[in-house]
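Q: Two folds, back to back.
A: First:
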Amino acid sequence: MDYVKPHAVVENMLAGAAVKLNVPARHLVIRGMLAGAYLGVATSMAVRDCSRCLRKPSCAIGWLD
């Protein structure tokens, strides 16, 4: 991995912040709703998978390898 000077990192962060500052509020709300939906789907899948392994404990042994 190439070394990046801290000053360059800060400049890139400030440039990204300036771009995000101009994003309309409507887009931020849409992005927030989509992020919540993705998290909801991922947690539902994880809980469903874990509950299946609780009924059949031999399924969880594969996680320990």
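A: Second:
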Amino acid sequence: MDNLERIHQVDAAWNQRDWELYGSLIADNFQGWMNGDSQPHDKAEHLRRGQAYCAAYPGNRIHCDPYLDAFASEDGQRTCTISTVTASSSDAADQRAMLMVVCHWRDGQIVRQRESICTDPFVPA
């Protein structure tokens, strides 16, 4: 399995709320940044944030079949995916955003990740 297939597995696990599979694809020494974080967060914080977001927006989904774009570095150790994310909650109208995720992989797990979410109203469907 290559890392583009693995990132698809990560996003499918998110959509299914399979936190065991999701967590198994993230290295214990993970460092992540989201939307301009000045300091990285670790694996435990990454999982906590994901679970909290899914609790607040239980209908959220990463649209990864297909991605808007997905590619890997020549050596396959870095991946980039761009997808549409939809979210809904009982308190808010449906929301749509574009999600870009850049990952550095080692031994089949994400060791570094940068996420950026664009909530521009003109994000493609």
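Q: And?
A: Helices lie at 3-16, 19-24, 43-56.
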